[in-house]
Write a structure and sequence with these properties.
- With 369 residues, the protein is α/β, with parallel strands linked by helices.
- The chain has 2 domains: 264 residues, TIM Barrel (Alpha-Beta Barrel), CATH 3.20.20.105; 92 residues, no CATH class.
- The chain contains 14 helices and 15 strands.
- The chain has an 8-stranded parallel β-sheet. A 3-stranded antiparallel β-sheet has the order 6-7-8. The protein has a two-stranded antiparallel ribbon with strand order 1-2.
- It starts with 8 loop residues before the first strand and ends with a helix.
- It binds one RNA strand of 72 nucleotides through helix 5, strand 12, strand 13, helix 11 and helix 14.
Length: 369
RNA sequence: GCCUUGGUAGUUAAGUGGCUAUAACACGACCCUGUCACGGUCGAGUCCCGAGUUCGAUUCUCGGUCAGGGCG
């Protein structure tokens, strides 16, 4: 029924990842709270690191010493590097005292540290750590930013994408095919369909290995931008991977797979694990097809493990979960509650493993339509 | 026995002769969409006891009591 199956894998540098895929954010070169081994056991086949945070945290040289981010992380899967474009929004646009942005690039002033990124520099850094998928530096905005800001954002994003491509070609021209990473372009334009189209057309003209939906995917009122996501997916070439950056909640991912997206990253499963929310599938989930999943946001539920009612709950987090915490009745809610209350780091680990397994299981289900 | 310092929320502290007495942690509920994130929002919960001075005392005075310190 769908064109999802057109693209079953993302392949790069002799690595292979099943699609659609969820990639947790390993911003600083690790997924908070868990080891790379934990990730593999959860079925995670790729992660997203962030070149701004790696640079700001002065980790680039350490990564180079280890001969690449894969070795550094001891993670054999696909590693996407985000360009720092999101931080242009989350740090500078949100708080101009954190830096300046102009047509050349962005200068971050954060925690008394200066970090300068241009499109060329971002690409160079991403290549220097041995990233598998290089993201173009973009000027990321909120959907409700002013039209003027959206215009500037798209203009810059397109120009920067051109510069990224040029730099990428220059730096990778001598690489063998099985050493060469991919380069993805990011489509901006906020909630403006014309700008989205303009941006997508320009990026397709430049030609990338994959295309991403960029920008904050949620309206000011807190509604997921289904229509925009759908529209942008249709602007992307069907034969190349489509990446919905920052998406999202389980029902949003289901919707986006329906629109044609293949790749997702989001802080939700990991951050919420640390902050109390643990997901589980309702039993009907396993009988649902994609269409039914799309029309039924209630295929899952969550518990807030630190709530008082779990203090004496001897059930596992989820009865139909096979994660390390839940399987073999390894840990009860009562135990994890207690570990959280005692600030035991293992609580965060178990919770993160649990939520990541929930997400990988969701993706497995979406692959088998 | 004498002298001395102190007693404010569950804990540790800040503060005031007059507005709904403050913060952190802990507690309870909620939130989180390319991580500024074990973070954020909201809520509940306090001036040791008695007497005095005063229009008004958690605040000043005296006594009690409890805890710490010093001297015997």
């Amino acid at each position: 029924m769908n064109k999802l199956k057109d693209l079953q894998f993302l392949e790069v540098k002799n690595k292979k990842m099943q699609l659609p895929a969820f990639l947790p954010d390993a911003t600083l070169g690790f997924v908070r709270g868990v080891s790379s081994n934990d990730l593999l056991k959860c079925g995670i086949e790729g992660v997203v690191v962030n070149i701004y945070h790696l640079l700001h945290g002065e980790l680039i040289n350490k990564i180079k010493e280890k001969k690449g981010i894969g070795n550094y992380m001891k993670f054999p899967g696909i590693i996407i590097s985000d360009s720092g474009g999101f931080q242009v929004m989350s740090l500078i646009h949100d708080n101009p005292q954190n830096g300046k942005i102009n047509d050349d690039g962005a200068t971050f002033l954060y925690n008394n540290k200066k970090t300068h990124l241009t499109p060329e520099k971002s690409v160079e850094l991403q290549l220097s750590i041995g990233s598998d998928v290089v993201m173009c530096l973009d000027d990321c905005t909120y959907p409700d930013s002013s039209l003027e800001e959206q215009n500037i954002s798209v203009k810059r994003t397109v120009e920067w994408a051109g510069r990224c491509k040029k730099e990428f070609l220059k730096l990778t021209k001598d690489m063998k095919a099985n050493e060469k990473p991919l380069l993805f372009g990011i489509i901006q334009g906020g909630n403006n369909l014309d700008l989205r189209k303009k941006c997508a057309d320009a990026l397709k003209e430049i030609e990338f290995d994959g295309y991403a939906f960029g920008g904050w995917p949620v309206s000011q009122e807190g509604n997921f931008l289904n229509d925009i996501l759908k529209y942008v997916a249709e602007l992307m070439p069907e034969n190349k991977p489509r990446y919905a950056m920052g998406v999202g909640r389980p029902e949003d991912i289901v919707a986006c797979v329906g629109f044609g997206y293949d790749m997702f990253d989001c802080v939700i499963p990991t951050r919420e694990a640390r902050n109390n929310r643990l997901y589980s599938f309702k039993s009907n989930f396993f009988g649902f097809g994609l269409r039914k999943l799309k029309n039924n946001k209630k295929f899952y539920e969550y518990i807030r493990i630190r709530n008082l009612k779990y203090k004496t709950d001897k059930k596992p987090i989820s009865k139909n979960c096979d994660c390390f915490a839940c399987s073999n009745r390894n840990f009860t809610r009562e135990q994890i509650y207690k570990m959280f209350k005692e600030r035991d780091k293992e609580a965060i680990r178990l919770a993160t493993i649990h939520n990541l397994r929930f997400y990988t299981k969701l993706m497995e289900r979406l692959r088998n339509q």
